[in-house]
Amino acid sequence: MSLAMFLELPDLSAFQFNLVYNMFSFTIATMFAAFVFFVLAQKNLAPKYRVSMMVSALVVLIAGYHYFRIFGSWDMAYALEGGQYVFQEDKPFNDAYRYVDWLLTVPLLVVELVLVLGLPKGESGSLMARLGFAAALMIILGYPGEVSANTGLFETRGLWGFLSSVPFVYILYVLFTELSSTIQRQSGRVAKLLSNARLLLLFTWGFYPIAYMIPMFVEGYPGEAAGAVTTLQVSYTIADVAAKAGYGVLIYAIAKAKSEEEGYVVDEMVKPASAEA
Amino acid sequence: MSLAMFLELPDLSAFQFNLVYNMFSFTIATMFAAFVFFVLAQKNLAPKYRVSMMVSALVVLIAGYHYFRIFGSWDMAYALEGGQYVFQEDKPFNDAYRYVDWLLTVPLLVVELVLVLGLPKGESGSLMARLGFAAALMIILGYPGEVSANTGLFETRGLWGFLSSVPFVYILYVLFTELSSTIQRQSGRVAKLLSNARLLLLFTWGFYPIAYMIPMFVEGYPGEAAGAVTTLQVSYTIADVAAKAGYGVLIYAIAKAKSEEEGYVVDEMVKPASAEA
């Protein structure tokens, strides 16, 4: 297992470099816009659901910061020479930003989902602790495989990838068994939105291990696999946008629907003085 | 179609370079100022119209970010040598920022307009989905033409420009047929403001394809067409300021007029304690 904590990347074509570059920039804009939206949208919700939007806002703020760093690191790691982007040995790409980001944000994503359920206090605390711990463990176990030079399925990458999926399976187990009865207790509209959020979580989170596996089947990753490096970066980025900003919008829709059911209709939350009496 | 995703620009005169440079800086200031205005102005509106200002705020925030990047890229792409701005081959200008910006903001601009109409929920959802999708499609179809080296009317640029205008025509069709009856249902003052917003959208959005067509009629674009490159950048920038910040102010005026009609007069929204009883 390599402890270098950086990646020796291959030279890239102008299209490959710029596709990743512009995806990173797109993600910075999306995350910070989502942050502003989640902060401003809180006032449309019943007070008890505002905290789930607060957590959503933290997630995209942290992610926006990390994509800002990832963008900078990517930009520094390459120089355009003769129409090609040449990897700069003295400024390697720092992929650890992703794992630091995930370590902070992934537990918060499960916390968001639990908060929007509006469970009794004791229940939600234990659920958040268990799922949050499993989420952090999943990220920590994935990292050694990500930075290892032995990228085979039955080598270092495969081993840590497998270990990392144990807590992932546990999270899915809790979401699809323990939480099912809680979801069925909600009204039809809310139950449907909650099922969608759970499915979005399954599909977006399921996308990461698939991307993680790409190097296992590509000869010479990362140093001689320009296509695989590009695909992996683009995949992680799309997954992050969906799993953080997209998911946050869905959590907002759930919080809004539940607020309305409990009588917090935006139009009636602030009355003009003239309308009173 | 070139897949490099960047533009090889010509050397520019000091006037040309600095005109574009200062326009970009002007736009950064305008977009961020507009952002603060749209955030703060929300409290003057009836709650149901606040979300249209929230969306306006997101649009100018995203645009401000991208102009910040565009400004930086423009600055890096040129060096002053002997009174002339010489294009730096190793740091080409990244025009993709514009398209990433438009991909995010143009669908939001139609969403703003639909939100301020205050239609029943089902109607407005379908309208936003259809118009937002058409707007995104319009941007995506324009990009291959923008970065192509074949800039002729009957070449790559012309083809993608034509394809891109199909969804544009659809948007105009919806705005000027389907929405006409909705607009006529409003009070005289609001109906007039809404017609103005629709016209501003037509004129500003119509300005982009005209700018897009400039290279079709200029020999040697972009590498040997300093005047056309300058004109195109200035045109896109003016159009962005009008279509985002200017348009947002108009949406604010509509939201304010509708709020007042519904009894939300600023002077009466918060009463001083001494005025009670």
Largest interface (CB within 8 Å) is between: A-B, 31 and 36 residues
- Unreliable parts of chain A: none
The largest beta-sheet of chain A arranges its strands as: 1-3-2
Q: Report the count of strand segments of chain A.
A: 3
Q: Which whole number gives the mean pLDDT of chain A? A: 90
Structural class of chain A: mainly alpha
Strand content of chain A: under 5%
Helicity range of the residues of chain A?
A: over 70%
Question: What would you report as the Rg of chain A, rounded to the nearest angstrom?
Answer: 21 Å
Which descriptors would you attach to this protein?
4% strand; mainly alpha; 3-stranded antiparallel beta sheet; 277 residues; homodimer
Fold and architecture overview:
- The structure is a homodimer of 277-residue chains.
- The first copy, chain A, is mainly α and 277 residues long.
- In chain A, 73% of the residues lie in helices and 4% in strands.
- In chain A, strands 1-3-2 form a three-stranded antiparallel β-sheet.
- In chain A, a hairpin with a 2-residue loop joins strand 2 and strand 3.
- In chain A, helix 6 packs antiparallel against helix 7.
- The radius of gyration of chain A is 21 Å and the shape is globular.
- In chain A, 42% of the residues are buried.
- The mean pLDDT of chain A is 90.
- The interface between A and B is medium-sized, with 31 and 36 residues.
Question: How are the secondary structure elements laid out?
Answer:
The structure is a homodimer of 277-residue chains.
Chain A (H helix, E strand, L loop, with lengths): L11 E2 H28 L5 H31 E4 L2 E4 L8 H22 L3 H27 L8 H29 L3 H26 L12 H36 L4 H4 L8
Antiparallel strand pairs in A: 1-3, 2-3
